[in-house]
Design a protein that fits this description.
CATH superfamily of the largest domain: NADH-ubiquinone oxidoreductase 51kDa subunit
CATH architecture of the largest domain: 3-Layer(aba) Sandwich
Helix content: 40-55%
CATH topology of the largest domain: Rossmann fold
Structural class: alpha/beta
Distance between the termini: 56 Å
Number of strands: 10
Number of domains: 3
Largest sheet: 6 strands, mixed
CATH class of the largest domain: Alpha Beta
Strand order of the largest sheet: 1-7-6-10-8-9
Number of helices: 17
Strand content: 5-15%
Shape: globular
Radius of gyration: 22 Å
């Protein structure tokens, strides 16, 4: 392996991207796409592999990059242990409204993602390959179709492009698994789980597949993190794992420290700035203090913004994205949204705050899927991070912070 090869494979992205505040990852300024010829010049042809590749993946400690960070080798060994048909899905449907790292990677280096999909299928003996997109991702679909038309390897299996619904839960791995088996694109109810009689499906995030494509070639996997950061616009950047949250924001032009940061997206965790500023973006370091970046979404909240209003926006949006499979989704989330709407308006008494905490206890851990838990996690973190301001709202004090600023993609 030459020094030139190493230096040309130390990042996943070709460069940062600037996107509109919400929606598919179409760049606002000049798009860059690696052609199949460029891809071959950079990395050479896709290697032929066997199931033995799982040992290399295990030694590398590769984790999934969709947000749950499940060890890739664990999923592969589970697939190898089962018999019958196998579908491998490249999940390019980012459910979080602010997420854009996967769509950006797909647009910039589609062949690296497709190589990872082909390598996974070949290693595990899959007979169906799918790229799963949200139905409104016209840009991603166009890039994929062009990339598939460019590929000339006789060893590639056919790849289907499947459009899922434009819904928060449609990008969840269990929802995709259920859809591949002919069911609705919703997470499996916890009490049921995956039906072992159904054809097997393995879902990998597109960033995970890109890293698999490099490992299969014996190349080092970049020690970097892909992030979607909300500033004046939405930015997708690739940074070294040891980069601090503060440095990420400084590099993107933030001049004043925010009061808090939402980590992981709309069902994420609010964290005070003084807690998070000097922490690196490395997942292990974040989990050591019970935090996570999840799918890599970072949302700073300006010092003069109202965290109660922002949380009310998000809880209301999460309630609107209900799976409608259980009481906590059908009734619990709307009740929580109503409590936060009242708290944000300041037209409440302290009983509203007490009822809100009681409803959190009633909803948490009792949903048919984990969607309600995302809302209760967000609420608990907001209650801690904005504790003093929450008390002001609950006592009916006038809010002196900005109430007009709304979270992108959230309607009143």
């Amino acid at each position: 392996m030459t020094t030139e090869t190493l230096t040309r494979t130390d990042t996943l992205l070709l460069g940062p991207a600037t996107l509109s505040a919400v929606g598919p990852a179409d760049p606002l300024m000049g798009s860059t796409r690696e052609t199949y010829g460029d891809h071959l010049d950079r990395l050479g042809g896709r290697p032929r592999v066997t199931a033995a590749l799982v040992r290399d993946i295990e030694r590398a400690g590769l984790l999934g990059h969709g947000g749950a960070f499940v060890p890739v080798a664990l999923k592969w060994r589970s697939a190898l242990a089962r018999q019958g048909h196998l579908t491998v899905v490249a999940n390019a449907a980012e459910s979080e409204p602010l997420a854009g790292k996967d769509g950006t990677l797909l647009r910039q280096r589609p062949h690296l993602v497709l190589d990872g999909l082909q390598v996974t299928a070949q290693s595990l003996g899959a007979d169906r390959l799918v790229v799963w997109l949200h139905g409104d991702d016209d840009g991603g679909r166009a890039v994929l179709r062009l990339a598939l038309a460019e590929r000339t390897s006789p060893h590639d299996l056919p790849v289907e492009i499947v459009d899922g619904p434009v819904h928060y839960l449609a990008g969840e791995a269990q929802a995709i698994t259920r859809a591949m088996a002919g069911g609705p694109p919703l997470p499996f109810p916890r009490r049921n789980g995956v039906d072992p009689r159904q054809p097997q499906t393995l879902v990998h995030n597109v960033e995970t597949l890109a890293r698999i494509a490099l490992l299969a070639r014996g190349l080092p996997v970049p020690d970097t993190r892909l992030l979607s950061v909300l500033g004046s616009r939405r930015y997708v950047v690739e940074v070294a794992q040891q980069t601090t949250i503060e440095q990420v924001l400084i590099d993107l032009g933030w001049k004043e420290a925010p009061q808090a940061v939402l980590l992981g997206g709309y069902a994420g965790i609010w964290t005070p700035w003084e807690t998070i500023a000097q922490l690196p973006v490395e997942e292990k370091a974040l989990r050591a203090v019970k935090l996570t970046l999840g799918a890599g979404v970072v949302v700073p909240l300006a010092a003069d913004a109202c965290g109660i209003q922002a949380t009310a926006d998000l809880v209301g949006w999460l309630a609107s994205m209900s799976a409608r499979q259980c009481g906590p989704c059908l009734f619990g989330l709307p009740a929580l949204a109503e409590h936060w709407s009242q708290l944000a308006s300041g037209e409440v008494d302290r009983r509203t705050l007490s009822r809100m905490y009681s409803d959190v206890e009633s909803v948490e851990g009792r949903g048919a899927c984990r969607h309600p838990d995302g809302a209760t996690r967000l609420i608990r973190s907001a209650a801690t991070t904005f504790a003093e301001h929450l008390e002001d709202h609950a006592s009916g004090s006038a809010c002196r912070r900005r109430l007009a600023t709304r979270m992108p993609g959230v309607s009143r």
